[in-house]
Amino acid sequence: MIEMDKVVKRYKDVIALDHFSFLAGQNEIIGLLGPNGCGKTTAINCMLSLLKFDQGTINIFGEPVNPNNNKTKRRIGIVPQELAIFEKLNVVENIDFYCGLYVNDRRKRKQLVDEAIDFVGLEKYRKFVPKQLSGGLKRRLNIACGIAHKPDILFLDEPTVAVDAQSRNFILEGVKKMKAEGTTVIYTTHYLEEAEDLCDSFVIMDNGRNIAQGTLDDLQKSISTTESITVKFIAEDSTLVNRLKEIPHVNQVIKTKDKYNIQFEKNHNNLSNLIRFIDENSLTYSEIKSEQPSLSNIFLELTGKELRD
Ligand SMILES: Nc1ncnc2c1ncn2[C@@H]1O[C@H](COP(=O)(O)OP(=O)(O)OP(=O)(O)O)[C@@H](O)[C@H]1O
Ligand SMILES: [Mg+2]
């Protein structure tokens, strides 16, 4: 559906995309993940041909992107990072305006607008103007505007930032429904747990580059950490992080609030080595959990940075 090959985009002396390549197949949800300023929105704007790029190629539906290709544009939906809704128009009018950019037939449009309202759960707010809506409800309206014309590819740029739990669930369930109906979704977020739950595969971006792309399984195989053990100790002291690092095969130890996350490289006896260390040091713990590396662990190992979760 989307092939982006070695795209370079510069803003004067900032390289926002540095030979960025990316592939998206049909009917999948792809998470575009990376820290502030890594180039996610720029990549989306290049794919939408809202921005000119300096080098490389982008094909969508097998054709090079072109701002004048209206046939292709009709098949694409965008929910931008910044709200793009009209303050003077109510919920129905806002959605109808965006849908009208792609669909001329008024009767068909009315049906699509009603479906979009139903999809994001805004039935009670049909006549409300944006200033009467909460932040989360405005986000849902922004989404309805992007999806009403039933695109084959949907770009969602940080749709759940500053959104309450109920609206967040609505948005995530809506994205899953779009996929079930056959849409390819490109989803950018800072929330790695959310991405892990929602997306079929991931692109890890850093400094305008594609650091890794694949399913969680592919990404887990691409790093040296193979096991992540979290322990909650009952008594601890400030030397514990460094002492835990002395256990054989430990890659990294991260302390978060009251828990220690210990990342091990491939080895069969990690848990027993840890338990032996605990016994030998007369430590006590209330919780211990062994898992495969999470997206957060993968992100940290690949980029050397933690992404806010
Ligand atoms: N119009 C612009 N003019 C100059 N520099 C820009 C412009 N837009 C983006 N940049 C720079 O390009 C880089 C990539 O920005 P971009 O907005 O694509 O990042 P992002 O990954 O979407 O970040 P965020 O998570 O904050 O939304 C950043 O260094 C940013 O400062
Ligand atoms: Mg952005």
From TrEMBL:
SMART domains recorded for this chain?
AAA
Source organism's superkingdom? Bacteria
Query: Which GO terms of the molecular function aspect are on file?
Result: ATP binding
Q: Which residues form the ABC transporter domain?
A: 2-232
Q: Which UniProt keywords apply?
A: ATP-binding, Nucleotide-binding, Transport
Matching SUPFAM superfamilies, A to Z? P-loop containing nucleoside triphosphate hydrolases
Concerning Pfam families, the annotation shows: ABC_tran (PF00005), DrrA1-3_C (PF13732)
Entry-linked Gene3D superfamilies: P-loop containing nucleotide triphosphate hydrolases
* Protein's name in the database: ABC-2 type transport system ATP-binding protein
